[in-house]
Task: structure prediction
Amino acid sequence: MRIFSRLLLGGLLLTGPAARACDICGCFMGITPYDNQSGAALMHRYRIFNGYRALGQRPQFRPAGARVAFPSALNSDNGYGHDHQGDATDFEAFRVLELRGKYFLSRRVELNAFVPYVLNTSQINGRQLNVAGLGDVTVFGGFHLIRAIETAGVQSRLIVGGGVKLPTGDYRRQNPAGRRYALLNQAGTGTTDGFVYANYIGSYRALGLSVNSSYRLSGENQLRNSLAPATATFGSLFYRVALGPNWQLYPSAQFFYEKTDGEMLDGELTGEHAMNNALLGPGLDLYYKNMSLTTSLQLPVYTATTDHPASAGRLVVALGYSFKQTKYLLHPKS
Result:
């Protein structure tokens, strides 16, 4: 049975400021024609911040020194200091190579787990810091509250759920002088965060719409460092093109919005990495039997002015595999 569906993540966002604030918001594994099928995906996410809006600088998706796939070095520091002074060459690139898994316990209950490997770069005043390592693992569940998928023409699904981000990544890395790097320059946060989300998917024949909204609350780590609450909304308008019995193509227009007041220390906002921005761009998913290739690119359409580099874009590429599931752990005879 084919239904247009977004396999979502749940409550935090992209990588670095983006992945912790918003890519559990932009949480997905792609549009899929498979209903209630478990599977796995390997996803690469790239999020870039560049250009100071208050100084009239235009953001660049790939500023000089910023590599999309991998940093120039996995772990290095050539004199980096977190001190924004308006240098047009400043950028913050957050990359994640992530293994994602989904398993259906029943027709309406799903479990998800994301295991990220972080590859981040921050360049300020010509000095660069590269950080690589295991990030914070996320686990969450979803319940398919509405499952109207067995009707001709119009189909709809509403999924609600929640989960937790675990403090598995290192958050105590220091420079050669023994000074700890800023929270979002770490591989992990050291905090246990909870989130809730809702995802609605509706389709009429070949045309479909998916909207996913999430809300995250962060705990404090042992240093009393944390992130402020964050909200994020991801929307996709997509169309199915059948290319034969085994091939399907899904072009889409995708929108992403995130908002957070940024970092906190001792329960007070520090003013670091506050975000209020929106992105828009194309996506293209290709399916061959049970294998999938997911791609999307979003560029800024709105960015609130802060004293940090502005949101300059987001890129996602993923390979996935889904397997046909006829039995479920909670209902083995179904």
Observations:
- The chain has a mean pLDDT of 86.
- Residues 263 and 293 are 35 Å apart (CA to CA).
